[in-house]
Write a structure and sequence with these properties.
InterPro entries: DUF922 (IPR010321). The protein has about 190 residues and is of the alpha+beta class. The protein is built from three helices and six strands. Strands 1, 2, 3, 4, 5 and 6 form a six-stranded antiparallel sheet that branches.
Length: about 190
């Protein structure tokens, strides 16, 4: 028996949060997606979309891409933190500050943190392959809500990165949590 279910979770973040459907096709010049890696930091060149609001200085589109399946009634899962260049933008890259880029990077780091938390949850539950879809949907809905709440709290607490002491505190806290969930990082 082969069954596969996929549930991409999208969170657009950066000075605001919205839920959005599947990513728009990427242009030939931009990679379709960038998978989170500790040794790969975002650059302003990664932000390929055009601004669609006057209120924001930048917008990061990040995704938790979760795929699960069963082969011969054995459950398996693949969960990845993804950055979507074709949906991410910066108003003016020439004048955008390094602090703003750090703020945007931390949105992507939060996506990776919640990806690791979802990997942990999926490793701990015993999912029935005959009834996989409802259980998987429930787990991922809860994971998305937790992620969405933390992203909103991050922007509120740091005033969208403008409160430098709070921004630094969040950076330290997220790095500590990433270390705490290191066992659930992709190797």
């Amino acid at each position: 028996m082969l069954s596969t279910f996929s549930l991409p979770l999208y969170l657009l973040s950066a000075l605001g949060h919205w839920f959005q459907g599947p990513p728009a096709p990427a242009t030939a010049a931009a990679p379709a997606t960038i998978e989170w890696r500790a040794d790969r930091r975002l650059t302003w060149e990664d932000f390929k979309a055009r601004p669609n609001t006057d209120r924001l200085a930048a917008l990061t589109s990040s995704t938790i891409d979760a795929k699960v399946g069963c082969v011969d009634y054995q459950f398996s899962a693949q969960v990845r933190a993804i950055f979507v260049p074709a949906e991410s933008w910066v108003r003016n890259p020439a004048t955008a500050s390094p602090n703003l880029l750090r703020h945007e990077q931390l949105h992507f780091d939060l996506t990776e943190l919640h990806t690791r938390k979802l990997r942990q949850k999926l490793s701990l539950v015993k999912l029935d392959c005959l009834h996989l879809q409802p259980a998987f949907n429930n787990i991922t809905k809860l994971a998305f809500l937790e992620w969405q709440r933390e992203e909103a709290k991050y922007d509120a607490d740091t005033n969208h990165g403008l409160n430098e002491p709070r921004q630094k505190a969040w950076e330290e806290q997220v790095q500590q949590k990433l270390q705490q969930y290191e066992a659930f990082a992709l190797k």
